[in-house]
Amino acid sequence: MLQVGDVHIHLINDGNHWVDPGGAFGLVPRALWSRYATPDDDLLVPMVLNCLLVQAGGKNIVVDTGYGTKMPEKMQKILKLQRPRGGLVEGLARLGIQPGDIDLVIDTHLHADHASGNTCYDENGAIQPVFPNAEYVVQRREYQDAIHPDERTRANYLAENFQPPVESGQMRLLDGDTEFAAGVRGVVTPGHTPGHMSVVIESGGESAVFVCDMATYAVHFERLGWMTAYDVEPLVTLETKRRWQQWVLERNAILIFPHDSYRPVGRLQQAGDGKLTVEPIEMAYV
To answer: How far apart are CA 137 and CA 5, in angstroms?
Structure first.
């Protein structure tokens, strides 16, 4: 558990999977990216699926929901999805928290690896929200892009992951930066998608930010020119990271990354020559 002022942050692993490095690192050559990620025998690189439970102002807040439980077995094999300790719901249970105890679900964006756990099958095979008493939130722009995908983005957006909370009246669409609880706010960080959102925690003079897919791995945050092939607007991602590098340095903020197996949590340090490095912080998963 990480404490930022009065806010408690729990890191929950929804699973581990393996992806093509061409997706994870885009134009970065293997000679460079292989220093930061070790491929397996199939030349795939690891990605964890990090979700958060944030406790602030008397609220239980889930940030991103991972892959959930609806994924067909064939796709699980393709992704080499592993869940040695279960997924998000099992992680919450280890904290003594049930789905009905969640007050708010923040969808940073609606890609399947971040939002599939919004919903699940009920006993009759119908799809329903996992968190029956929660309000779900996402940026309006992200939702509009999800319901009107193009040839590049449509594989990432599955209506079954976000329409059930809309139909149940649980989904609220946001129009820009939004405060959710004392010390917890969502901030639009475009690039990965135009409506992508990061989550900022500021309390008691301390700061942390779940950057989400602004920077998939810590090295993506260190190096402005490194980004994934999944970024819809890569040059926008670059400028977003430039702004947030400065923000983080000014506050000595803690960084939390969505997919980094090696440095999921850290602080950005700047050497005398200007080189930036994320120094890892020890933070155990729930």
So the answer is: 24
